[in-house]
Write a structure and sequence with these properties.
This protein has 426 residues and is an alpha+beta fold. Among the domains are: 2-135, no CATH class; 265-281 and 329-426, Alpha-Beta Plaits (2-Layer Sandwich); 286-325, no CATH class. It contains 17 helices and 8 strands. The chain has helices spanning 5-15, 20-60, 67-71, 74-78, 81-89, 104-135, 144-167, 171-180, 182-188, 190-204, 249-252, 259-264, 285-291, 295-314, 330-344, 379-396, 410-421; strands at 213-216, 221-228, 232-237, 242-246, 256-257, 267-275, 355-358, 366-374. Residues 191-259 form the Mechanosensitive ion channel MscS domain. GO terms for molecular function: mechanosensitive monoatomic ion channel activity. It comes from Candidatus Electrothrix aarhusensis.
Length: 426
């Protein structure tokens, strides 16, 4: 019935005195305009009333997962089927029956359906990613790489189907042609292909998650991961700048992920005090008696003194001397003090590696390294704890008659110049 309407309108124009040569193009131009306007108006009405009402209902309900559909414009993209459907209904009257372009109209409409369908699937995949991310926010796991890969495949398949529809050729024939252009395809889409593979590797092997703290010196990245996609990984550095790293670079180049520290419950403190080796010596009995007044050293000192006394007695060593028998050193007692003091510290992790050790002596003195873990991983709290520990240890060094090694400073040179300028008594 619909395809008879153009002929009736053409006949009416001819009765009005317009020639057939003019009445045909006028009729079909008006039809195209009316169909286009109808499609545009219908789409606007659907979006203005139907979709807006639907979005309002979704926003006000108790479920949160469906909000992702509106955030990624799923329903708006779904409305693109409306104009395509109107053109599909009106396809028989868009052009004259004898037009050579008439065979392309169904093909263009089918391409419209394919394109609208791909856009809807893309929005649905994005919404699925948002829903997954919101439900796994604490773990930081992401499926963004898989989602992007599926979207790329959908767009490629859609492009093949559209070209196949327009040219009238089989999709398999187009695929065989594309196979011959593999080298050119690899060259043009090199970054996308590398990113696609890298994103899958990163996600499958759980190498990186949103929220991980990573360091990658080659790209100047040091901060939290805020986005992982098929093309790039975005990192918010501690100075609030954003670094964008190609996804495949995380596979090709080394980077440090601090997630293990976060999950372990502790954060490592590894720092050394460099002691002046000329200040290391044996302690006298009077000095040991004085140090025994320190509560956390008292039990250790008593048992240690008794052990050394028995050892020296059994071997007939001199107990009053320091050469022939065993004696205690100020650095040994200082090391024992550090261990005992850290064991009592409430912010030091007791179930992780706990070491107070001497390193190889060198030009900068005797390094006495503290290798422990704090039970607070927050950066500011960790730094405050580390500073408090070394503030205390440096301050208590004089009790053990030990000195910190440091390079001569201006103060030292001024003190020497005063000594040199002092008058020499005859």
């Amino acid at each position: 019935m619909l395809h008879e309407q153009p002929h009736l309108f053409i006949a009416w124009l001819e009765q009005a005195g317009i020639s057939h040569t003019l009445s045909v193009p006028i009729t079909y131009t008006l039809i195209i305009f009316v169909v286009f306007f109808t499609a545009l108006l219908t789409t606007w009405l659907v979006r203005r009333f139907l979709i807006r009402s639907l979005i309002k209902i979704i926003r006000n309900n108790q479920m949160r997962w469906d909000d992702a559909l509106t955030d990624h414009h799923f329903f708006t993209r779904l409305s693109w089927f409306v104009p395509v459907l109107i053109f599909y209904i009106a396809q028989d009257i868009l052009l004259p029956p004898d037009s050579q372009w008439l065979k392309f109209v169904p093909r263009l409409i089918l391409c419209g359906f394919i394109l609208a369908g791909i856009r809807v699937i893309s929005a649905l995949l994005k919404a699925a990613n948002s829903i997954y991310r919101s439900r796994h926010l604490q773990t930081g796991k992401t499926i963004r790489g898989y989602i992007d890969a599926i979207r790329i495949i959908c767009y490629l398949l859609g492009a093949i189907l559209m070209v196949s529809t327009l040219t009238g050729r089989s999709p398999w024939g187009l695929l065989s042609v594309m196979g011959g252009l593999t080298a050119l395809t690899m060259l043009i889409f090199r970054d996308t292909i590398l990113g696609f593979i890298a994103a899958i590797q990163l996600t499958t092997n759980d190498m990186i998650r949103v929220g991980d703290w990573i360091e990658m010196e080659s790209h100047g990245a040091d901060g939290d991961v805020i986005e992982v996609s098929i093309h790039s990984v975005r990192v918010r550095n501690w100075n609030k700048t954003i670094t964008t790293i190609p996804t495949y670079a995380l596979i090709a180049n080394p980077f440090k992920n601090w997630r293990g520290m976060t999950e372990s419950g502790g954060r490592r403190i590894k720092r050394a005090l460099h002691l002046d080796m000329t200040s290391i010596r044996f302690l006298t009995e009077d000095e040991l008696d004085k140090l025994e007044e320190i509560r956390i050293l008292r039990q250790y000192l008593r048992s240690r003194r008794e052990e050394i006394r028995k050892y020296n007695t059994a071997r007939g060593a001199e107990t009053s001397g320091t050469i022939n028998g065993r004696s205690q050193t100020n650095i040994g007692l200082f090391r024992a003090y550090i261990s005992a003091w850290l064991q009592e510290h409430p912010k030091v992790h007791k179930k992780m590696t706990f070491l107070v050790r001497q390193l190889k002596p060198g030009p900068t003195g005797m390094p006495l390294e503290i290798y422990v873990f704090s039970n607070d991983q927050v950066w500011a709290n960790y730094e405050a704890l580390q500073a408090d520990i070394f503030d205390h240890l440096i301050s208590i060094l004089p009790y053990f008659d030990l000195r910190i090694f440091q390079e001569p400073s201006g103060y030292d040179f001024r003190a020497l110049s005063k000594i040199d300028s002092a008058p020499i008594e005859q």
